[in-house]
Amino acid sequence: MIRFRLNPAALARMRFAYSPLAETAKSLYMINSGTIQPPHRGWYERVRSDLGRVDRELLNAVVPPGGHIAEFLFVGATATTTTIEQQLQLVADWPVPHFASELTQAHGGHGLSAAARRLIDLGADGPPHVARALEHYWRVGVAPYWPRLRAVLDADVAYRAGKLTRGGIADLMADLHPSIELHEHAIRVASRTEGDLHGGGLTLVPCVFIWPHLWIEFGLAGDPSLTYGARGIGSWWQDGSAIPAEEEDALGALLGRTRAELLVALHLPRSTTDLARTIGLSPPTVSSHLAILRRGGLVTCWRSGRRVLYQRTGLGSSVVAACGHDKAGRAAPMSR
Fold this sequence. Notes:
Number of helices: 14
Oligomer: single chain
Number of strands: 11
Low-confidence stretches: 240-248, 327-336
Shape: globular
Radius of gyration: 21 Å
Strand content: 5-15%
């Protein structure tokens, strides 16, 4: 059992963060283990042909199939604006003794592979070598799809923040993960590991590729973090932007072709820039159409850091479903 004490200082510092590095590590684990979860099959079919461009032997040594994932692959998520570059710099600077120890632990009782042994033998050059290989895989397998991933993470955080506002920490934790419970002013996580988490606060990190599992990082490079499966991952691969011709008369005639495409695309939160890229229009044009949809009560918006995110309201999802375009309309709308 792992416990995190909920004293006032810890509650004040609790925050959400995104971890591009965790998405990288967990997607690699899925590939290397040969177990592609159903929500990720669309993504895997797209990236599979490009995997020959990365150093699979080295990446298998860092994230071995069926093994433990090294702690240094979950560090550095401090905000929703955390970048892969920031996290990979932490990997490159990771202390050599800890690097060797965590890599050995990752292989468990299977023994180090030849590639893993070579990494350890590199000494101080080992961590930067791993960081470069991970960066290459990120560019091939994750970066092209980061806007879609981030839309799922944005939706999850908005949902969790709403629960925290309405019902407090108990409501927030109620459906985070089955192994989590609140008990006597502490978050308890059922685990084979025993210990108490210490630090100024707990960072909550939604992750698309970690589902259905959970990961506790003990604060090796800052506050401890809890990485959990983001809700709504079943919709992350849905394009949701194209309207089939047979449905155009209903939704397109009602709203106009462009506004209909925008409403369909907004089954997950997206910024004006994201939408402009998806629809193929300029940001000012998209912004003008969004203003009309918002005045009509079909979309809502809120600020997330420097971005303004838009998503369908319950009414907007009902209109999409009533017009027959229900594939992407199944994602739960967010009440604001």
